[in-house]
Specification:
There is one protein chain. The protein is of the alpha/beta class. The chain starts with 5 loop residues before the first strand and ends in an 8-residue tail after the last strand. Bound molecules: pyridoxal-5'-phosphate. Pyridoxal-5'-phosphate (PLP) binds next to strand 9 and helix 9.
């Protein structure tokens, strides 16, 4: 559609960010999985990650994994959400490894793998404090033992996840615990674990400070490569690009209006009672993009003088009084995105995607 909001995606910057992350990780003996769920696994972006040198891809959604396979990606893909008991067939068919915490699911994966004459790799998830998925440490050995009974399952290693539910930061302590549990399992069962997977973007901070415990040899990186930010540690990653994505949308009205609505205040379009502070007449622009296009809490105007006042499903109201630009109808306003914003636009059919630096599709 003409004038649709556009998401510009700079593939060279994705490639650069991937390369930087890979280089820093490899220096410390750590492999990198490029996590594709933040952008609904658009293949152009996944390709740029691969060109940047990631060792494998990972996603939390089977739809995304299948799309990547359909586009011809052959490198290892790890399923990053605990498989559904009802979906083990697809997990075995389309991925090489999955994270797991339920023996009943692992047993079902084994049965499925047998059917397809495959070996499926399991990364057993250990909860070291964030309280999302994973076994508590006292149960690890027992489950690892049970896994070793399944011929079609290879216990590839242990992993942990942080910063997602409890907001717990990775530390030498909690990652060290993961490594220790791994050594204990190896010793007790006389096996070798290939992978100790020490988290996502929030672990890059430790990496920079050479504090990732020896033994951790895999990280699963999405946000850092895509946005150059580390939300859990509340920081920009100085050595990565923050402007891979740019969202632009067209102005459809410019007018000066009071800041207080007139009349009796009821509920807004989403059932909330809006509150206003009267700061006099302000110049505002209406942008043709709303909550159906994007999670407006996940976007920020590039022009720092602009203030988002609110949004309904199809309209975004922006205070433009202080801008040095003379914004007029037909102009575009540009926004940066955080992870929530990116998630919301990536699969919105109302937001056009434009790839900058797209090249022949050789490197899958
Ligand atoms: C989403 C996800 C990641 C990637 O996290 P980022 O913070 O985007 O790097 C890693 N591991 C698991 C299990 C995930 O679900």
């Amino acid at each position: 559609m003409r004038g649709s909001p556009i998401l510009d995606i700079d593939l060279e910057k994705i490639k650069y960010n991937s390369f930087q992350v890979v280089e820093k990780c490899h220096e410390q003996g750590i492999a990198v999985l490029g996590v594709t769920k933040g952008f609904s696994a658009m293949y152009q972006i996944a390709s740029a990650m691969v060109e940047g040198g990631v060792d494998g891809l990972a996603d939390a959604r089977m739809e995304n994994v299948m799309e990547l396979r359909k586009k011809g990606f052959t490198l290892p893909i790890t399923m990053l959400r605990l498989p559904r008991l009802s979906d083990v067939i697809n997990v075995v068919k389309h991925t090489d490894a999955s994270i797991n915490s339920e023996i009943i699911v692992i047993e079902a994966l084994a049965k499925a793998a047998k059917k397809f004459k495959k070996i499926h790799q399991v990364i057993l998830m250990i909860d070291v404090g964030d309280l999302r998925e994973g076994l508590l440490k006292e149960n690890v050995l027992e489950v690892a033992k049970q896994i070793s009974c399944f011929k079609e399952i290879k216990l590839a290693g242990l992993g942990t996840n942080m910063g997602c539910f409890g907001g717990i930061l990775p530390s030498p302590d909690n990652l060290g615990l993961l490594v220790k549990i791994g050594l204990y399992v190896e010793r007790e069962l006389g096996i070798q674990l290939e992978i100790i997977s020490g988290g996502g973007t929030s672990s890059l901070y430790l990496l920079e400070n050479h504090q990732v415990p020896v033994g951790v040899n895999q990280l699963r990186i999405g946000e850092g490569i895509l946005l150059g930010t580390d939300t859990t540690n509340n920081r920009k990653i100085s050595w990565l690009h923050q402007d891979v994505f740019l969202l632009r949308a067209e102005v459809i009205e410019v007018n000066s209006k009071p800041t207080m609505p007139t009349g009796t205040i009821g509920r807004d379009a989403f059932g909330h009672i809006p509150e206003f502070v009267d700061i006099g007449v302000r110049k505002r622009a209406i942008v043709s993009m709303g909550k159906q296009d994007v999670n407006v809490e996940g976007i920020n105007p590039i022009d720092e003088k602009l203030i988002i006042l609110g949004a309904s499903s199809d309209h975004l109201i922006v205070d433009i009084t202080d801008s040095e630009q003379a914004i007029k109808v037909g102009d575009q306003i540009a926004f940066s995105l955080n992870y929530a914003g990116l998630l919301s636009v990536s699969d919105s059919k109302y937001v056009k995607k434009r790839f900058i630096g797209e090249r022949s599709q050789k490197s899958r």
